[in-house]
């Protein structure tokens, strides 16, 4: 996968549809630089990949924190639904 495709897919995965300004803030870069990378007009520096890897890792950890709560709420919903059927 080339730089422009990966940076775009990663940006969308981490920050949603309006990812460019948010990535620019996270990396302390101008949004035009982010657009240059996404459009293939500039090569993404190695240090940026390192920062993006850390951002992805932190995002994954935040999502993992929800897992236990999701399971707990699912279990409670199943109990409520079973109680309504009885």
What's the gist of this structure?
The chain is mainly alpha-helical and 86 residues long.
Features:
86 residues, mainly alpha, 81% helix, 0% strand, elongated
Could you please describe the fold and organization of this structure?
By secondary structure, the protein is an all-alpha fold. The chain has one domain (3-85). Helix content is 81%, strand content 0%. It contains four helices and no strands. The chain has helices at 3-15, 19-27, 31-38, 46-85. The protein is elongated, with a radius of gyration of 19 Å.
Helicity range: over 70%
**What is the count of structural domains?**
1
Q: Which word captures the global form?
A: elongated
The tally of helices reads 4
Structural class: mainly alpha
Largest sheet: none
Question: Helix and strand layout, with pairings?
Answer:
Layout: H1 3-15, H2 19-27, H3 31-38, H4 46-85
